[in-house]
Amino acid sequence: MSADVEAAPAPVPATAARPRGVVVTGAAQGIGRAIARGFAEAGSAVVAVDVSPDLAPLGTGHDAVVGDAGDPDVLARAVARAAELGEGLATFVANAGVTSPGETVGYPLAEWDRLLDVNLRAAFVGAQVARQAMGPGGSIVMVSSICAVQGFAARASYCASKAGIEGLVRSLAVEWGADGIRVNAVAPGTVATDMQRAMMASGRASPQRYLDRIPMDRFGEPSEIADAAVWLASSRASYVTGVVLPVDGGWAIGGLPARA
Length: 260
Ligand code: NAP
What we know:
Bound molecules: NADP nicotinamide-adenine-dinucleotide phosphate
Strand order of the largest sheet: 3-2-1-4-5-6-7
Number of domains: 1
CATH architecture: 3-Layer(aba) Sandwich
Number of strands: 7
Number of helices: 8
Strand content: 15-25%
Mean pLDDT: 93
Helix content: 25-40%
Largest sheet: 7 strands, parallel
């Protein structure tokens, strides 16, 4: 091993406070709530955004903005508040999402537009607004899905929206890489939330059919998606950009699970 590698690390010079502000959309419940909680536990000042009037701040030092995650004014308010509470904006998490299964023939175009607006357009608007408040450095994390890279019957709008998220992540990572703004995504598999419970209750696929696809033989917990999102945004991932990290118990790698 060379002397360079063995040399003691230089002491870190004192610098100005590192930005701690974080905005998480769709943070009233489910995965978004867990992500917001994860950032708060990691020492961030978190502003939660959600259309749900039940939205509550995480506690002292955090805040909440009730509104549509696709509305630039709502996002600007949330970003400004996070920057105020956290001495700058460190991270924006585009998590808000909806699902609306249906056969393609006869699928209402208004529903296609609504789904693409929430799942894809809002993430783009969020990135636009957040980028202007960030720098030098910063991180954007988007929430994709295994549906981005696999086909699911009667879920064309959802799958298309998530494939769009992954294109967005790669494009923005390249566009803003030299500015130190990292852009990544987590791609959850099947996670126990209201969205997933509604899918199962619709009768389109039984819980067992999902489990049959998951090598780890269980659904994910929202906190497991949160851990990945917090890591992607952290300095521990300082050279990671433009990636989509599957957090899916092995679903995306396919194969044949061990059970009979
Ligand atoms: P969820 O339990 O339904 O929570 C989503 C939250 O987003 C709800 O509070 C919802 O409010 C809110 N929301 C919806 N539209 C919004 C808008 N326009 N502006 C602001 N907030 C809005 O869903 P989840 O399962 O946690 O899903 C979170 C994200 O993970 C989504 O992007 C989803 O596509 C993705 N994902 C989930 C799974 C899974 O298995 N659960 C798997 C892969 C990816 P209302 O309830 O009032 O509408």
